């Protein structure tokens, strides 16, 4: 199944298409570091993404990062569907040299986000590192996920954010894997 969405505001114009798969993603947000993070996110999550964004990057990258997260989260929710037949829970630790991060995902339908990550620098290149949290929050809320994300150890800001993106991707992939065919809840509803 392939899902697509467009979103246009006074700050951004976004066209995204998302599907499960291991093919090449085509990503152009106008923010080089975000493109790099989305490329590795799709690789490690088992998703393919076509992403075209035009944003007001002459101001800064905030609207591009957050709005891309909003649209991506909505598409994840649509791709996951009614949640029957998935594992529901996923967890991943990802080391990158001196850095170690952990992400735990529950495809619960109840958005909740805990982000315990102090990034060691304010910028990676021209990218404001605080935008990583804004991006993830937008994805989590719009996808209806519960996510706990922790930077356990760090040192290099690029590694810290990359490790968080990879651990989120791998935890999400695990949570989206096929389960035993039942809706993964004793309540009978998610």
Automatic annotation (TrEMBL):
Catalytic activity: D-erythro-1-(imidazol-4-yl)glycerol 3-phosphate = 3-(imidazol-4-yl)-2-oxopropyl phosphate + H2O
Keyword Membrane: no
EC number: 4.2.1.19
UniProt subcellular location: Cytoplasm
UniProt pathway annotation: Amino-acid biosynthesis; L-histidine biosynthesis; L-histidine from 5-phospho-alpha-D-ribose 1-diphosphate: step 6/9
An example Gene Ontology CC term for this record: cytoplasm
Family the entry assigns: Belongs to the imidazoleglycerol-phosphate dehydratase family.
PANTHER family, per the entry: IMIDAZOLEGLYCEROL-PHOSPHATE DEHYDRATASE (PTHR23133:SF2), IMIDAZOLEGLYCEROL-PHOSPHATE DEHYDRATASE HIS7 (PTHR23133)
Protein's recorded name: Imidazoleglycerol-phosphate dehydratase
Originating species: Planococcus lenghuensis
């Amino acid at each position: 199944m392939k899902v697509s969405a467009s979103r246009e505001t006074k700050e951004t114009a976004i066209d995204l298409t998302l599907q499960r798969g291991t093919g090449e993603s085509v990503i152009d947000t106008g923010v080089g570091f975000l493109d790099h993070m989305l490329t590795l996110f799709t690789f490690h999550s088992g998703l393919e993404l076509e992403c075209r964004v035009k944003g007001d990057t002459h101001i800064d990258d905030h609207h591009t990062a957050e709005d891309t997260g909003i649209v991506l989260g909505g598409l994840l929710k649509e791709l996951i569907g009614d949640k029957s037949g998935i594992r529901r829970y996923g967890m991943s630790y990802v080391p990158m040299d001196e850095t170690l991060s952990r992400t735990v995902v529950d495809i619960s339908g109840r958005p909740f986000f805990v982000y315990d990550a102090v990034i060691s620098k304010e910028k990676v290149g021209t990218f404001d590192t605080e935008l990583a949290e804004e991006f993830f929050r937008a994805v989590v809320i719009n996808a209806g996920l519960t996510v706990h994300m922790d930077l356990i150890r760090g040192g290099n800001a690029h590694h810290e954010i990359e490790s968080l993106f990879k651990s989120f991707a791998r935890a999400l992939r695990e949570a989206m894997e096929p389960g035993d065919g039942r809706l993964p809840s004793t309540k009978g509803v998610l």
